[in-house]
Specification:
Strand content: 15-25%
CATH topology of one domain: Rossmann fold
Shape: globular
Radius of gyration: 19 Å
Largest sheet: 7 strands, mixed
């Protein structure tokens, strides 16, 4: 699930979002309530939103009456995050590899659009540490659905600059030995956009934001929105997603040689 990558490039991309925090907050898709309900159930929980960004998932969790602790490494993203959630949620500086929360404090850890940035050799142990017994890990991201002709053309533009840009290899992450069997569900979601919104969305993708061909890519996206028969002349249009949710439960017995809580 996590592709091989150059470490220096990965570090640059991982912390590339802060400079565009306002655009990220404005243009990135939200998450359907059904996905959160399936992942967490009906009862209010204490939830850690790990890699919270500008708080898109944080707000959704708080709106579903969960108590939320939001952890985000990028200081500029945290500014927007605090502005969005105010005093409703705790906002902390930290990362998946160094979670600033004591042992056994939360019922669930949620990673929305961030799991592929984690160093899993460290992060999985940290996530297990802060979870209560039988606590749950929830991995969520929105996958663009490319079965519409204009979306397929968009994917071609993006793939030319970054193969695998849709980030949907279809496989499951290896979360052993800290977590048990994985369950998965997908939920349809439509994001309403106009030309500026589509261009703004693509501009928030890290591989576009850091590309030397950024302006060329965005020009191609704008041209698609203006000229494609399915989009031209429409003030708004819908970009379809499948919100992919993977859930698993912390094992009760720590792996051999590792501390148990």
């Amino acid at each position: 699930m996590t592709p091989e990558r150059d470490d220096s490039w990965d570090r640059s991309r991982r912390l590339s979002f802060g400079a565009g925090a306002a655009a990220y907050d404005r243009f990135r898709p939200r998450f359907p309530p059904e996905a959160i309900a399936w992942g967490l159930g009906p009862m209010p929980l204490t939830v850690l939103d790990l890699g919270a960004g500008t708080g898109l998932m944080t707000q959704a969790l708080a709106g579903a009456d969960h108590r939320v602790i939001a952890v985000e490494p990028d200081p500029l993203m945290r500014v927007t995050l605090r502005g969005r959630v105010g005093a409703r949620c705790d906002v902390l500086e930290g990362s998946a590899e160094a979670i600033p929360v004591p042992d056994s404090q939360v019922d669930c850890v949620v990673s929305a659009e961030s799991f592929h940035w984690f160093d899993l050799s460290v992060a999985l142990g940290e996530i297990a540490r802060v979870l209560r017994p039988n606590g749950r890990l929830l991995i969520v991201w929105n996958v663009r659905v490319g079965d519409m002709p204009w979306v397929a053309e968009l994917e071609q533009i993006l793939a030319a600059s970054h193969p695998g840009s849709a980030f949907d290899e279809g496989g499951l992450p290896d979360v052993r030995p800290w977590f048990g069997d994985l369950e998965e569900a997908r939920f349809p979601y439509l994001q309403t956009l106009d030309e500026d919104g589509l261009v703004g969305l693509v501009g928030t993708f890290s591989y576009v934001a850091l590309s030397p061909h950024r302006e060329q890519i965005l020009d191609q996206v704008a041209h698609l929105a203006r000229t494609h028969p399915d989009l031209a002349g429409h003030p708004t249009f819908a970009l379809p997603y499948a919100t992919r949710v993977i859930r698993c439960t912390r094992v009760t017995q720590a792996p051999d040689g590792l501390a148990s809580t």
